[in-house]
Amino acid sequence: MSMLNKIVLSMAAIRILSGSIEILAAMIMLRFNQIEKALLVNSGLALVGPFVLLTTTTIGLIGLADKLSFSKMIWVLAGVSCIFIGILKK
């Protein structure tokens, strides 16, 4: 069995943590059993998602930094910026 890449392991661990937070939030929603409180919990998750995306993308880009040309890195950063503008724009 080959050894796991540290970058991939870090990205996967953050995603597992994020998924665990999502499951915990769903359980909290079911426990409260009220629409208002479920929306409040859901709003908290809206903050977690972009943070996880930014963190995992940053870790991945750090891992690829020596393999990507500067122009390709700019394109990736522009794409991630567009995603965040789309998410955060009202």
Write up this protein.
With 90 residues, the protein is mainly α. The chain contains three helices and no strands. Helix 2 packs antiparallel against helix 3. The radius of gyration is 17 Å and the shape is flat.
Please write out the topology.
Blueprint: H1 6-32, H2 35-64, H3 70-88
Oligomer: single chain
Compute the number of helices. Answer: 3
Shape: flat
The SS-based structural class is mainly alpha
H/E element string? HHH
Residues in helices, as a percent range: over 70%
How much of the sequence is in beta strands?
A: under 5%
Low-confidence stretches: none
What's the end-to-end separation, in Å?
48 Å
The overall pLDDT average reads: 89
Biggest pleated sheet: none
Radius of gyration: 17 Å
Number of strands: 0
Describe the structure in brief:
The chain is mainly α. 84% of the residues lie in helices and 0% in strands. It contains three helices and no strands.
Labels describing this entry:
single chain, mainly alpha, flat, 90 residues, 0% strand
